[in-house]
Amino acid sequence: MRERESLIIGTLAVILQIIYLFPLIVVSKVIIQEFFSNPQVTNAQSIIELYNIITNNPSMLVGTSETVCMLSTIVLTGIAEKDKKVLQWVAGIVDGDGNFHISKKGYVELSVVMEPRDIACLYKLKQMYGGAIKATSHANAVRWRLHHKAGILSVINGLNGLLYNPVRIAQLERVCSLYNVEVISSTPLTYNNGYLSGLFDTDGSVYYNKSSNQAFITISQKERTLLDLLVSVYGGKVYASNKAKTAFKWTISKKVEVLALIDNYFHWYSCVSAKNKKFGLVKQFYYLSSIGALKASPDSELGKSFVQFVERWDATDNPQ
Ligand SMILES: *[C@@H]1O[C@H](CO)[C@@H](O)[C@H](O)[C@H]1NC(C)=O
After folding, report:
1. Cβ within 8 Å of residue 249, ≥6 positions away
2. Which residues of the chain have a pLDDT value below 50?
3. Model pLDDT for residues 3-20, shown as the tens digit of each residue
4. Which of 54, 119, 184, 194 could cysteine-pair with 88, CB 3.0–4.6 Å?
5. How far is the CA of 204 from the centre of ligand 1 (A)?
6. Are residues 119 and 214 in the same domain?
C-alpha cells in the first residue's frame, strides 16, 4: 500500500514538473532549432527576451532542479555568445566597407560595397537584415543596400557600441540622433572579438613574397587610428603605404605571429569572404619554403609543387 502511494505521488511529481517546465522547453526548443537550422540569422532579441522572462519570473522554474536551470543558462549563454560574434563581425564589415547615408528628406540608407568574389558577406547581411544586392554601375563590385526603417533600426541597435572606425561612429551617431536612439560608447576591443574577422573580410589581404620567403596578413585604411588599435590588441606594425601618408597598412609578417593569428584567432573567428581560403594555404607556403620548393627550378619535382601551389593560391581570387 505504502509503495503504491509513493509511486503515485512520485508520478504526479514528475507530471507536475513536466507541466511547469513545458513552456520553457517549448520556447527554448523553438529558439534553438531556429538558431541551428539557420546559423546566419541573429536571434539576439529573442534570446535576450527569453533570458529576461526566466530571470524576471523565477516562478517559471518552480519545481525544476538547479541543474536544469544552470544547464539552460549555459545553453542560452552559448547561443548569445555566438550571436554576439556575428554582430561583431557585422561591425567589422560596416566599419570597413559600409556607409550610412542620410538623404535631404531624412531617409537613411546603409550600403556595403565589396568585390564580387566576396559576395558571400553580402548574402549574409541580406539574410540578417533584408535589403537588396546589385552590381555597381561599373560592375566591378557588388553592393548591398538597406533602406527600410525596421532594418536600419535593427542594425544601429545591434552595432551600437561595437564600432571602432571614427568615420563610421560619426555616421552612426547622426543616424541614432535621427531615430532617437541613445549612442553607446565603444567597449574596449579585446582579442576574442569577431570584429577583426569582419574588418579583414572587407579591408584585409593575405599575400606572400617568394624571394623573401615571407607571408603577410594586412589591413589597409586611410586613417591610422583604427590600425593602431589593432596593434595594441593583436600586435604587428602600422606602415604608411605611400610617401604622402594618405593610406596605412597594419601588417603581421613574422612567421610565428602569422601562424598564431591564424590558429588562435581566425580559426575561431572565420572570415566569410574568399580570403578565408588563403589562411590554410599560408601554412602550405611555409612548408614549401622550408623544403626549398620556392627556390627550386620550376622543372624539378620540388619546383612543380610550388607551381601547383601558386595555381591554388590564385584560384581563391576567382569568384565562384
Ligand atoms: C620581396 O622581397 C624582396 C627581398 O626581401 C624585396 O627586395 C622585394 O621588394 C619584395 N617584393 C615586394 C613586392 O614587396
Report:
1. 218, 219, 220, 221, 227, 238, 239, 240, 241
2. 1, 34-43
3. 666 666 666 666 556 556
4. 194
5. 20
6. no
